[in-house]
Amino acid sequence: MGKPFGGELSLLKKTVDWTNKLDLNHLKIYLEKLPPPIYIVGSGGSLSACHYAVSLFNDHGKFARAVTPLELFFSEKTIRNSSILFITASGKNYDIKFSFKRALEYEPKAIGAITMKENNPLSLLTQKHGIAETFDFNIPSGKDGFLATNSLIAFFSILNKTLGIPGYKIQNNSKDLNVRISKFLNEISNDCTLVILHGSWNKAVAVDIESKCTEAGLTTTLIADYRNFGHGRHHWFDKNPNSAIIALANRTETGLCHKTLKTLPNSIPKLILESASENPDSALDILIQSFELIKYLGQKVGIDPGRPGVPGYGRKLYHLPYSNLIKPSKKTALTKRAELSIKRKLNMDDLQSIDKKELEVWRKFYSKFMGNLLRTSFGMVLFDYDGTICSSKERFTGPSNEMTEKLLSILEKGFMFGVVTGRGKSVRNDLQKIIPKKYWEQVLVGYYNGSEFGTLSDDSLPDKGQELHPSLQPIIPLLSEIETLYGIKVTKRPNQLTIEIEDNKRWGFIRNLVIQTIKTRGLNEIQILESSHSMDIIPNSISKVDMVPSAKEKLKERNLPQQILYIGDKGQWSGNDFMLLDNEFGLSVDEVSSKLDTCWNIASLSNRNSSATMEYLDCLIFSENGIRFKISK
User: Fold this and answer.
1) CA distance 40 to 204
2) Residue 98 phi, psi dihedral angles, 5° rounding
3) How do residues 553-600 score in pLDDT, each as one tens digit?
4) What is the spatial distance between Cα 249 and Cα 271, in angstroms, rounded to a whole number?
5) Alpha helical stretches, state H, 347-424
6) Would you say residue 305 lies in a domain?
7) By the 8 A CB rule, do 210 and 248 touch?
8) A single GO BP annotation from the record (predicted)?
9) Which residues contact 25 (CB under 8 A, 6 or more apart)?
10) What is this structure's pTM?
């Protein structure tokens, strides 16, 4: 089992060059938008990459924590309000798959995975759940040997390219490095304990050295940062003289490193692995140097780290299941869908923690909502667009082929659908591309949060020639200073101001600044709504439901049922669908309001956004009497 370690190291440059050529824009956007707190989950060698990701997220001002699958298992009460990112080379080990399935049960804010093999078991699992997103790469070096080498440098390089500084190149200092490593190893015995000291960016490398030394059975290691080492850990050397130090330092940490080492007795062997960079890429420099150290250490103790040999009990441990550790939850009288839907309303995992009388109230309102939904005949489905019909990846390309087929099935059966969005003619253009012209009169489009609406055939809409609404005029000068200082993009439409920003890291601050600036001026004739990608400011007199009376007239003209099924993703205020979904037939594919009688999310576990919309559309039954919604309660 495994590969010669030296042979794997010869492929490192090829691997780094490959990562530099990858188009990582979508992954970069995903990671930048990932809401904290963030758990980064990995096993074995991949855990080192998790620690590097933590450092990068921290550098972006986000709290993150590297955990093993078992640690995530024991953190289950925090999962719902966290984001989860899995890092795994193969995506097939038991721990990662079990942990992923377990995380899905808590419907975290986001859940994603980065892997080094396309169509692996984990990525195939993510495809079944709309909440999950996976980024698979086919690493040219193939599967690693016993230890993570090329996959690990690929993870580091990809993470550095997306969250750090792109364009890393391997530094050619092997001759000097090899001399220093040889000198150090000649000074220590085969059973010497290695104490690994690190600073900021290099904690991940320290973790990886410990991992490789332990997994390959090379030697004993201890880890500490430079200052925690000074709080008692230095005492190890006084009682255990057969020990040595490996110090990791980039340019920023070099002073602290040398000052620390100078305080220690000269008799303690020391090796410094350092980088001239002070940036995140310094971790890659030192990681590659540490690989060389592991190679020569293996030669010294007579073990090839790439194929050290695995005892029989090791394989049993690797595949050891532990699902029986899960305590069965106390059963309620609720169906699975009812329980899940009520948990979404309450934003909690354990319904046993609320009063039984309250739970009974929620059960009654859920039953009433479902009863109305299932016995009503509809003539139209009215959708939000971004996050509902289109996923974030499809924002600039339009609905998927699968979604298009579902939309067309509504029209082909003689019924209608509508779209109401914060966008303008781009939505009309998208829909005209996928909907045959003969159906355009059956499709209604509401632009700029419902301020203008008409059929898909009406190319005169939206009309940008109108004057700016009086309630919006005082806001323009208020936004001009913010626009200049922070580079926000303010797009003016007659009945809407749209605010967008390229730097997602500042969105929370700028959002609050905009709201505070407007609200403290006493401008009460406007409302501020949020979509999946922007903030819209519109007059109070405008709403997405403004087009409903016109839609019902169209239904009446066609002798169709006048009830409308509403589907959107931002049902909680200040989301831009909170009014659209505030009725007895309002279905959310993501956020729900806290109200008892409207805006429920009844999609399957961990199904979200356009995938949940597809699930809802699969529940539509067409007949001469209208569209019926059929789903288990």
Assistant:
1) 13
2) -65, -45
3) 999 999 999 999 999 999 999 899 999 999 999 999 999 999 999 999
4) 11
5) 356-375, 401-412
6) yes
7) no
8) carbohydrate derivative metabolic process
9) none
10) 0.91
